[in-house]
Recover the amino acids of this structure.
């Protein structure tokens, strides 16, 4: 778990120009930031570029980090913004290709195989369903329902209005629910 | 769409409820009283609400399923930070300001410096993210 005072100390030191303090913050958060970048972009190359760009931006704007949020939360916002830029750049170039490949998930051996297997199966199905969502729907639902960012933060990082963010969130939730738990009568409608 | 159209009191249909559920499932919005009454009386809509809850619960659990980044990620990030740091140090020096973090780092090559930082950091590893 997190030692907030240690984080605060590192942030203060990094703001004062201590490069090794910032490096420690990068080390501590890079797997989380990369994971978010991967969930938003759907592929490893883009996720790596987005993570790198996010830390660069964070480094440059560290003075503006007020410390009223967790450093990791601040990084999530920057990562969302970088991913949004990356995705719009991509969508101009080629047709979006989204990976169904969730075998990079860090699946540790579980202690209670039966229960964990069931939970794991659902988690894998959700991961695959997320990857199949259009990027903008995926971004909103990942940021809200996985990473708990507030609506206004999501809207501002994705460059959309708060009401647009909510509409997309609800659409994304509905698509996920329909795909994962089709109600009677929905199975035919969604034939993939 | 839906085959059954159950209208509870107030003429709210299963379709109306279905449209409202994604917004109310996490308490983000409050369902209006007619929708609440319909759900209380309709097994189908109750079942759908339960499924939404399951989806949200699973999404929430993804938060702790952290991916293992490629080992090249960290050195890549640090190298790009080094380059930015050097530019900033240069800028500060040219403007006659003291540079707090030089300590030899800025003098090394980007890749070499990243390696050195990695080696030092490995010894006192801190884990900030949950
Ligand atoms: Zn109903």
């Amino acid at each position: 778990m997190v030692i907030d005072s240690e984080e605060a100390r590192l942030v203060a030191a990094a703001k004062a120009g201590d490069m090794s303090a910032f490096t420690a913050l990068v080390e501590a958060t890079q797997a989380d930031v990369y994971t978010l970048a991967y969930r938003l972009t759907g592929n490893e190359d883009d996720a790596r570029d987005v993570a790198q760009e996010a830390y660069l931006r964070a480094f440059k704007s560290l003075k503006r980090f007020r410390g009223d949020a967790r450093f990791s939360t601040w990084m999530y916002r920057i990562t969302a913004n970088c991913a949004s830029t990356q995705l719009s750049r991509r969508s101009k170039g080629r047709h979006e290709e989204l990976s169904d490949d969730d075998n990079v998930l860090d699946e540790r051996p579980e202690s209670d195989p039966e229960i964990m297997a069931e939970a794991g199966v659902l988690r894998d199905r959700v991961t695959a369903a997320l990857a199949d969502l259009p990027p903008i729907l995926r971004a909103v639902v990942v940021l809200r329902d996985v990473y708990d960012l507030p609506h206004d933060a999501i809207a501002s990082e994705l460059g959309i209005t708060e009401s647009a963010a909510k509409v997309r969130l609800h659409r994304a939730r509905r698509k996920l629910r329909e795909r994962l738990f089709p109600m009677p009568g929905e199975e035919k409608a969604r034939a993939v | 769409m839906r085959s059954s159209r159950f209208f509870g009191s107030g003429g709210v249909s299963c379709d109306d409820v279905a449209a409202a559920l994604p917004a109310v499932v996490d308490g983000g919005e409050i369902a209006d009283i007619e929708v609440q009454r319909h759900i209380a009386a309709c097994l189908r809509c109750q079942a759908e609400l339960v499924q939404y809850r399951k989806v949200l619960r699973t999404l929430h659990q993804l938060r702790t399923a952290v991916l293992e980044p490629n080992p090249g990620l960290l050195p890549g990030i640090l190298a790009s930070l080094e380059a930015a740091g050097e530019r900033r140090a240069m800028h500060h020096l040219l403007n006659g300001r003291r540079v707090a973090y030089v300590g030899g780092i800025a003098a090394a090559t980007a890749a070499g410096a990243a390696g050195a930082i990695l080696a030092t950091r490995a010894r006192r590893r801190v884990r900030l993210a949950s």
The CA atoms of residues 30 and 51 of chain A lie 8 Å apart. The radius of gyration of chain A is 18 Å.
